[in-house]
C-alpha cells in the first residue's frame, strides 16, 4: 500500500488513527499493540507470504538481544549468530540473483536462475536490527518489551523506505503514554502534505523525461542526455525526500518523531557535506557501524572510506552499477580529503556547489542506468560524443551553430508535456528554496534550521487554507499511482 494512494489516505490511515486514539484513551497499553498490528498488516498487504519472514526476523533478533543482555560477559557468542542470520537473510533475498548472474557472465554458461523476489523494505528492517544487536553487545541498549521492539522494527511510516531508525531515538517514545495532541496532528498533516506534493506534483511528472533516455540503445544526444540526467537527479530527490517527509508527518500524528533524512543536499558546498545532507539516517548507520569499526580516521582512513562507500553502493542494489556508483562517491570523498589536506581549505562555496552537483549528477547516471553499457552511453551523450540534435525549426539558423549540429529533431524528450516545465521549477526549489524542517522550524522534528526565515509554518488560517488547496491539487493529480523509487532498494 502506497502513501500516495486513495486506499491509504481514506481507508487505512483513518481506521488506524481512530483505533489508536480510542485505545489510547480507554486502554493505553493496547494502543501500542494496535499500532504494531496495523504496521504488520500494512506490510502484509504488499504480499502476505513475506509477513512470516518479517515476524521471524523480529523474533530471532529480539531473542538474540535478550540472550546478550542476560549474559554480558558472553554477549559475543550471541552477536555473531545474530549478525550471520541477518546478513544471510539479506544476502539470499537481495544478492543471490546478482551472484548467479555474475557467475553466469564470468563462466559464459547459463546457470539456473532462482527468480528470488526481493521482500519490500528488507534492507531497512535488517539494518535497523543489526544496529540494535551491535549496541546490545556494546552495552548501549537496554531491555525492552517485545511489543515495543516489534513496533520499532515494523513501524509502518518507515518500514518500506526508511529512514533507518535507531533504538535510542524510538524506544523511549514508544514507552511514553500514548495520546492525542492537536499540535502534533496539525504539524504532522502539514508535513505529510508537503511530502505528498513533492512526490505527486514534482517527482512523478519528471518520470517521462527519464525512462526514454536511459533505455537500452537509446544513444541520447547532448540535449536529450542532459535533460534526462537532470530530470532523474531531481526526480529521485523529490521522490525520496517526499517519502521521508510523508513518513515524518505520519509518525507525528501518533506523537512519534522520526529522524530527519534530508537537508537540502543539492545545496552542499562539497561532497562530504552532500553526504551529511543526503539520506542522513543511512549515512549515520554507515559511519557508526561500518566506517568506525573498520578503523575510521584512526588508521587506513582512505581505505575505510572506499570500503564504506562501495558497500553502501551495494546496499542500494544488487548490480554492478550500484557498486560503481558507490566507488565513484568513494573516489569523490578521497579527492575531497586530499584537496583539503593539501590546500588547507575547501573550495570557494560558489563554485564548490557547482562542482559537487556536477559530480553527483554523473554518479546518478550510473545509479539509474540498467547496466554499465547504458550508463556509458548516456555519459557519452552528455559529453557530446553522440552528437547534437536540434529541433527542425532551427534549421534556418544553421550558420549560427557549429558544423556538427543536426536538425533531426529531439527524439526522447516530449516538450509538449509537463515534464520540462516541472524540471525548470524543480531546479530552483532544490537549489534555493527552504526545506521542510526550515519551514517547520518552530515545530520540526530533530534538527534546527540553518537559516532564519520569514516563511515559517504557524497554526494559522492562511496556512491551513494553503495546505488544504495543495492537498486538493495532489488528489486531482493522483490519477496514476506510482511507486516510490526507493522501494526497490
From TrEMBL:
GO terms for biological process: alginic acid biosynthetic process. It is found in: Cell membrane. Pathway: Glycan biosynthesis; alginate biosynthesis. GO terms for cellular component: plasma membrane. Pfam families: MBOAT (PF03062). InterPro entries: Ac/AlaTfrase_AlgI/DltB, AlgI, MB_O-acyltransferase, MBOAT_fam. The chain crosses the membrane at residues 6-23, 52-70, 77-96, 116-134, 146-166, 178-197, 307-330, 350-367, 379-400, 412-433, 462-481. It is a multi-pass membrane protein. One of its GO terms (molecular function) is acyltransferase activity. Keywords: Acyltransferase, Alginate biosynthesis, Cell membrane, Membrane, Transferase, Transmembrane, Transmembrane helix. Belongs to the membrane-bound acyltransferase family. This is Probable alginate O-acetylase AlgI.
Amino acid at each position: 500500500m502506497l502513501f500516495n494512494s486513495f486506499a491509504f489516505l481514506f481507508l487505512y490511515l483513518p481506521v488506524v488513527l481512530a483505533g489508536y486514539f480510542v485505545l489510547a484513551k480507554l486502554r493505553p497499553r493496547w494502543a501500542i499493540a494496535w499500532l504494531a498490528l496495523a504496521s504488520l498488516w500494512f506490510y502484509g498487504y504488499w504480499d502476505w507470504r513475506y509477513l512470516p519472514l518479517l515476524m521471524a526476523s523480529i523474533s530471532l533478533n529480539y531473542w538474540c538481544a535478550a540472550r546478550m543482555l542476560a549474559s554480558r560477559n558472553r554477549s559475543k557468542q550471541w552477536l555473531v549468530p545474530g549478525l550471520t542470520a541477518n546478513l544471510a537473510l539479506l544476502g539470499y533475498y537481495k544478492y543471490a540473483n546478482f551472484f548467479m548472474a555474475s557467475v553466469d557472465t564470468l563462466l559464459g554458461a547459463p546457470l539456473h536462475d532462482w527468480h528470488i523476489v526481493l521482500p519490500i523494505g528488507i534492507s531497512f528492517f535488517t539494518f535497523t536490527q543489526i544496529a540494535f544487536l551491535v549496541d546490545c553487545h556494546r552495552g548501549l541498549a537496554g531491555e525492552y518489551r517485545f511489543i515495543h521492539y516489534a513496533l520499532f522494527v515494523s513501524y509502518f511510516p518507515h518500514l518500506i523506505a526508511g529512514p533507518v531508525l535507531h533504538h535510542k531515538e524510538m524506544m523511549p517514545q514508544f514507552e511514553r503514554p500514548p495520546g492525542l495532541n492537536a499540535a502534533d496532528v496539525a504539524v504532522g498533516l502539514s508535513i505529510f502534505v508537503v511530502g505528498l506534493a513533492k512526490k505527486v506534483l514534482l517527482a512523478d511528472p519528471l518520470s517521462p523525461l527519464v525512462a526514454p533516455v536511459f533505455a537500452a540503445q537509446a544513444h541520447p544526444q547532448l540535449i536529450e542526455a542532459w535533460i534526462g540526467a537532470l530530470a532523474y537527479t531531481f526526480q529521485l530527490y523529490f521522490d525520496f525526500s517526499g517519502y521521508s517527509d510523508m513518513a515524518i508527518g505520519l509518525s507525528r500524528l501518533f506523537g512519534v518523531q522520526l529522524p530527519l533524512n534530508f537537508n537540502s543536499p543539492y545545496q552542499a558546498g562539497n561532497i562530504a557535506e552532500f553526504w551529511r545532507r543526503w539520506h542522513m539516517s543511512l549515512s549515520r548507520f554507515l559511519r557508526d557501524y561500518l566506517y568506525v569499526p573498520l578503523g575510521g580516521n584512526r588508521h587506513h582512513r582512505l581505505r575505510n572510506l572506499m570500503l564504506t562507500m562501495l558497500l553502501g553502493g551495494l546496499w542500494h542494489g544488487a548490480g554492478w552499477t550500484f557498486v560503481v556508483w558507490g566507488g565513484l562517491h568513494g573516489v569523490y570523498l578521497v579527492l575531497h580529503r586530499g584537496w583539503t589536506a593539501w590546500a588547507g581549505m575547501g573550495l570557494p562555496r560558489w563554485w564548490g556547489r557547482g562542482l559537487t552537483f556536477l559530480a553527483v549528477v554523473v554518479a546518478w547516471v550510473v545509479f539509474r542506468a540498467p547496466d554499465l553499457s547504458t550508463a556509458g552511453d548516456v555519459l557519452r551523450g552528455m559529453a557530446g560524443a553522440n552528437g547534437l540534435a536540434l529541433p527542425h525549426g532551427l534549421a534556418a539558423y544553421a550558420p549560427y551553430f557549429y558544423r556538427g549540429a543536426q536538425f533531426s529533431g529531439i527524439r526522447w524528450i516530449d516538450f509538449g508535456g509537463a515534464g520540462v516545465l516541472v524540471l525548470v521549477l524543480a531546479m530552483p526549489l532544490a537549489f534555493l528554496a527552504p526545506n521542510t524542517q526550515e519551514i517547520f522550524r518552530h515545530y520540526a522534528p530533530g534538527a534546527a534550521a540553518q537559516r532564519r526565515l520569514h516563511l515559517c509554518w504557524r497554526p494559522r488560517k492562511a496556512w491551513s487554507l494553503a495546505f488544504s488547496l495543495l492537498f486538493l491539487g495532489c488528489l486531482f493529480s493522483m490519477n496514476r499511482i506510482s511507486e516510490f523509487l526507493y522501494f526497490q532498494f
